[in-house]
Design a protein that fits this description.
- The protein is an alpha/beta fold.
- It folds into 2 domains: 8-254, 3-Layer(aba) Sandwich (UDP-N-acetylmuramoyl-L-alanine:D-glutamate ligase), CATH 3.40.1190; 262-408, Protein-Tyrosine Phosphatase, Chain A (Alpha-Beta Complex), CATH 3.90.190.
- Helices cover 42% and strands 16% of the residues.
- The protein is built from 13 helices and 15 strands.
- The chain has helices spanning 29-38, 47-66, 74-89, 126-129, 133-140, 162-179, 220-236, 245-254, 278-288, 313-322, 343-354, 366-380, 390-408, and strands at residues 8-12, 24-28, 93-96, 116-117, 150-153, 183-186, 194-195, 201-205, 211-215, 262-266, 269-273, 300-306, 326-332, 359-360, 384-388.
- It starts with 7 loop residues before the first strand and ends with a helix.
Length: 409
């Protein structure tokens, strides 16, 4: 939305999927946004700048360590590179995603941001952020600043129990009061959501004067994300009046985000989704159940999956079953990460939750498994879903897109 309004926008995100340079990006106005929609590598920090600025940060790091200061973390170093790059690029505005939590995150160094945003609260990263949703909400609310507007979805619209939603709402209100900032809870109009035949989603936005929003990001959670983003961007419109309903609608329409219920093939249907915890799994199944007029969920699915062992794997699989996902064949894979769950353990959890022995694919190597699974789906037209860890999606997305591109030309 900001870029569509003609602003030069710096975007900092993590983790990366296919290229490290994805984490630091500059989208230069409307033309830049169109270029990004056509090529997802557009605007990424170039190799020379990354190398040069990393050298500057390395020198600074050596100096602070010599002074007895603790060595910065990898994320802190990358964040410093990001700040230097955005300064060189003379951006108008930056959109900074926190790495973990918020309160102690290295992105949380701004005294007066235009707005702060919390998109969801759930039981994830509990070893760092805390054991309860209230504790995690406290850590996320650490980005609130005095006099700075904060926006968040109504906790009762999140994937939380009513009791947990009450706790999150109470904690966020308390932290906003302590920080002296206004907090607005946004209620997305999910009852207006409808899906189109071209895999788009439409819904009504009160923030844009009741206009209909069209987006390629699908699911009630994306309706919530979009509604919250609109509220934050409207804060920026107080500074840049060229931000209008029309520029926001265009920005939303052109927004792409890979590996979030990303459909990369229709025949056979191939979907990539990085739902790596129970909340993400539920969101995906909810979306999957609405695609193709509800016809997809009625069919058995071929599943390539790899997750981290420190995730609630059983909770993920239970959400699949509860959402009606019929797993006809599973390819549990070993992700290229030391924290990966073992494929045999994944397979056994699926069998236990579904209370039956599910057909298993013949490879646990991600790229090979994805290619072989796709070949089978070409023959039997069974939908193929690759899901779980974002590390897995980063490994196989390029492989699958290459195979599908060669097959369909």
């Amino acid at each position: 939305m900001l870029a569509s309004s003609g602003l030069k926008v710096g975007v900092y995100t993590s983790p990366f999927l296919e290229r490290f340079s994805e984490r630091i990006r500059v989208i230069d106005g409307r033309e830049g946004l169109i270029s990004y929609a056509e090529d997802d590598s557009y605007g990424e920090i170039d190799a020379d700048s990354l190398d040069r600025l990393s050298g500057e940060v390395q020198e600074a790091c050596a100096k602070v360590v010599e002074e007895g200061i603790e060595h910065p973390t990898e994320f802190e170093l990358v964040t410093a590179v990001c700040f230097l790059y955005f300064k060189e690029q003379k951006i108008d505005i930056a959109v900074m995603e926190t790495g973990l939590g918020g309160r102690l995150d290295s992105t949380n160094v701004f005294d007066d941001p235009i707005a702060t945003v919390i998109t969801s609260v759930g039981l994830d990263h509990m070893g760092v952020l805390g054991d309860t949703v209230s504790d995690i909400a406290y850590e996320k609310a650490g980005i609130f600043k005095k006099g700075c507007p904060a926006v968040c979805p109504d906790p009762h619209s999140m994937i939380l129990t009513p009791e947990d939603a009450d706790m999150v709402e109470e904690r966020l209100k308390k932290e906003a009061d302590l920080k002296g900032c206004s907090l607005t809870f946004i209620t997305p109009k999910t009852d207006t959501v409808r899906y189109t035949d071209d895999h788009k989603m439409r819904f009504i936005s009160d923030g844009l004067n009741g206009r209909e929003v069209i987006t390629s990001l699908v699911g009630d959670h994306q309706c919530s994300n979009c509604t919250v983003a609109i509220s934050a961007v409207l804060e920026a419109s107080k500074i840049w009046p060229q931000i209008t309903c029309d520029t926001c609608l265009e920005g939303i329409r052109l927004t792409t985000w890979k590996c979030r219920a990303e459909i990369i093939s229709d025949d056979p249907c191939v979907i990539l989704d990085g739902g790596h915890n129970p909340q993400g799994a539920k969101s995906f199944v909810d979306v999957y159940g609405k695609l193709d007029g509800g016809k997809l969920i009625a069919k058995p699915v071929r599943l390539v999956i790899g997750v981290m062992s420190d995730k609630d794997v059983c909770g993920i699989v239970e959400q699949y079953k509860a959402g009606g996902l019929k797993v006809g064949e599973i390819w549990p894979v070993k992700v290229n990460n030391p924290r990966t769950a073992l494929p045999d353990d994944l397979y056994n959890i699926f069998n236990k939750v579904y209370n039956k022995e599910i057909d298993r694919g013949g490879s646990d190597v991600p790229e090979e498994a994805a290619g072989l699974a796709y070949a089978r789906s070409q023959n039997d037209n069974m939908p193929l879903v690759v899901t779980g860890s974002l590390y897995l999606l980063g490994q196989v997305r390029g492989t699958l897109k290459g195979i599908i591109g060669c097959t369909t030309t």
